């Protein structure tokens, strides 16, 4: 992005416009960039935003109940999640859905003067409280209003990415995971969690009581939304066993494997030839004859078929 019409006060940009490569304009007001995209949010995101705006005034007052209900120590739980990020004092970290900063504060205090924490949220009221909480930390903190599944950063920008609470309500959860993987460097960590009643507890009295009181526990586990770049993926159930936490290391593209070694046994072939070398089916009688022939020749089915088909093809082609 390119900065246009900046106004500086005390060395800090207080207002201006960020111009995107596609011609989009993003305002900076009172030092806070508004990077929310798309400009017209889907209905699900507008509804979620309104819920959080309505809760902002009392959120921190009642949030501790989430932990005390299950006899959990909030600081211990949050620190254990943040441990998964493998932070260094100079790490560059992105937190999406950062809320009022209950995790942001812990992350920032693990970073030194060379560290940098980017905090983002869709809710102006939540983010304002987060910014206030960040005053006095050593790390550089960069706040912005932003949509968690349209991240305004280049590929491989961060050492780690964190999100806890809120992703269930995102309009496009799969894209949110893909974006976190995109902006995190290969080898970096992504940690994401939210509430979800696990399948084995949904029909229990315990599960029914909680889902009746808080419908957000009905959200399914978004296991099918994880990105193809996820490596060494772990899933843990925390806070009474009704919140999930994924953590994974970011890889590049699909996983790799050796698909070309000769597989021993009667079938033979390789993983690759078994997948890409399939031909039209034959009658049961032809299949039985082929099995008898390959056994007599002491060859795998792959080797026998490959030789027979090549010989027949060359004959018919006149080669």
From TrEMBL:
One of its GO terms (molecular function) is methyltransferase activity. InterPro entries: Methyltransf_25, Methyltransf_Superfamily, SAM-dependent_MTases_sf. Pfam families: Methyltransf_25 (PF13649). Residues 93-188 form the Methyltransferase domain. This is Methyltransferase domain-containing protein. It comes from Paramagnetospirillum marisnigri.
């Amino acid at each position: 992005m390119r900065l246009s019409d900046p106004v500086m006060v005390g060395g800090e940009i207080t207002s201006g416009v960020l111009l995107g490569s596609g011609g989009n304009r993003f305002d900076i007001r009172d030092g806070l960039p508004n990077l929310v995209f798309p400009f017209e949010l889907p209905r699900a995101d507008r509804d979620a935003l309104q819920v959080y705006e309505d809760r902002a005034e009392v959120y921190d007052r009642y949030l501790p109940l989430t932990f005390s209900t299950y006899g959990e120590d909030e600081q211990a739980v949050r620190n254990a999640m943040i441990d998964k990020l493998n932070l260094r004092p100079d790490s560059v970290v992105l937190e999406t859905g950062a809320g009022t900063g209950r995790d942001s504060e812990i992350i920032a205090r693990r970073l030194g003067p060379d560290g940098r924490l980017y905090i983002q949220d869709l809710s102006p009221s939540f983010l304002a409280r987060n910014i206030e909480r960040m005053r006095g930390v050593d790390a550089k903190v960069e706040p912005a209003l932003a949509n968690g599944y349209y991240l305004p950063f280049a590929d491989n920008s961060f050492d780690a990415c964190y999100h806890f609470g809120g992703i269930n309500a995102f309009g496009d959860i799969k894209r949110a995971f893909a974006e976190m993987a995109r902006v995190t460097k290969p080898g970096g960590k992504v940690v994401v969690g939210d509430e979800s009643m696990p399948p084995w507890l949904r029909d229990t009295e315990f599960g029914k009581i909680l889902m009746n009181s808080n419908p957000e526990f009905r959200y399914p586990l978004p296991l099918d939304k994880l990105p193809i770049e996820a490596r060494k993926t772990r899933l843990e159930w925390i806070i009474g066993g009704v919140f999930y936490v994924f953590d994974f290391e970011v890889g590049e593209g699909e996983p790799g494997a050796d698909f070309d070694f000769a597989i021993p046994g009667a079938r033979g072939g390789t993983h690759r030839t078994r997948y890409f070398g399939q031909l039209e089916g034959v009658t049961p009688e032809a299949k039985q004859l082929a099995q008898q022939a390959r056994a007599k020749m002491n060859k795998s089915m792959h080797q026998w078929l490959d030789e027979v088909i090549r010989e027949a093809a060359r004959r018919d082609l006149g080669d």
